[in-house]
Each structure stands twice: as C-alpha cells, then as structure tokens.
Amino acid sequence: MWSIQDVSAEELAKLFHHYRGALAHDFNCQSDEATSSSTWDRASQHERKLMVAAARLALLELATSPKPVSELVNEKRPYFATPGEADWGC
Question: How many whole angstroms separate alpha carbon 42 and alpha carbon 34?
C-alpha cells in the first residue's frame, strides 16, 4: 500500500483524468470530448496544470489532516491501560 508521501501530484492528476474520462459515460456527464475521452498527453496544457494544482492541494490536505477518531481509539498508547486491565485501588 502506498503512502501519500509516495504519490506525486502529477501521478494523481494523471490517474484522476483517466478515471474521470472512463467514468463520465456511466454517470451521464455532459462534458466536452477534450477532457473526458482524451489521453493525458492530448489534454491541453491548461487542463493539465489545473489538474496537477488541484492534486497538489488534495495531497497537502490529506497529509496535514488529523487522524480520524477511529484510528486514535485503536492506536496503542503505552501510558493507558487497556479496558479491564487497570488496577483500581483506594
């Protein structure tokens, strides 16, 4: 499994462009043929720059987002006893 740090914005943008074009027909999207069905190499320079910039922002946001609560609950913390194992004394 890849980490966010292993993915470049260009790779993510290229994949997003590919899947957007592949799925557009399934979702009845009325998009222009230049962006939905062309390959990455045939996309306009403007379109590629826009997609790379959006991918860069998405990766940055994902990398800086705090962990979901579900991950924090399951995370091992050496200074907390697991439920049922704490010694209670007065």
Answer: 8
Q: What is the pLDDT of residues 50-85, one digit of tens each?
A: 999 999 999 988 888 776 656 655 666 566 666 666
Give the residue among 60, 36, 62, 58 at the shortest CA–CA distance from 47.
36
The answer to whether residue 74 sits within a structural domain is no
Structure tokens at 56: 């860069």
Residue 73 burial (CB < 10 Å; 0-12/13-18/19+)?
Answer: exposed
- Domains: count for the chain: 1
E strands of the chain, at which residues?
none
Is there a contact between 10 and 55 (Cβ–Cβ < 8 Å)?
yes
